[in-house]
Input
Amino acid sequence: MHDIRFTVNGQAEHATVPATLTLLDLLRDRLALTGTKEGCGIGECGACTVLLDGKPITSCLMLAVEANGHSIETIEGEAVGGELSVLQQAFIDEGATQCGFCTPGMIMSARGVLSRTPNPSYEEIIEAIAGNLCRCTGYEAIVAAIQLASERLADDAQKGRLP
Output
């Protein structure tokens, strides 16, 4: 067993985990953060995407012990004070949710690209979500939602509002 310390959505956490436990299982089963989904368990679908130190990763492929000392962001950290984030609202406004299974991972990948590149090009968005599979939307609504969030965040920044 290994003692690990990390933060999840800004909150300090401590866990004692076996060497074989995945980060996904730690989040879902131990911390009850079930917004992160298990789609394939082999890192192919992106449903389990979270941010590790601001970078999108597939949590089904990462061992929980590797999270020691790191910061993790999950979909549960997107909404603040019960209000949807600009990105979540853009997904709703553009109809980019459909069945919703891929949405948490897709939003985390989108958050990653918007953190690195506040005004990403169409190609940068496509590259950012390339590891996230969606069987319902055809991706155009998702790309439009990310572009809309980028525009809204830029407008908020111009007006001096924080995202």
Q: What stands out?
A: The mean pLDDT is 93. The chain has two domains: 2-77, 86-158. Helices lie at 23-30, 86-93, 103-116, 122-128, 140-158. The first helix runs from residue 23 to 30.
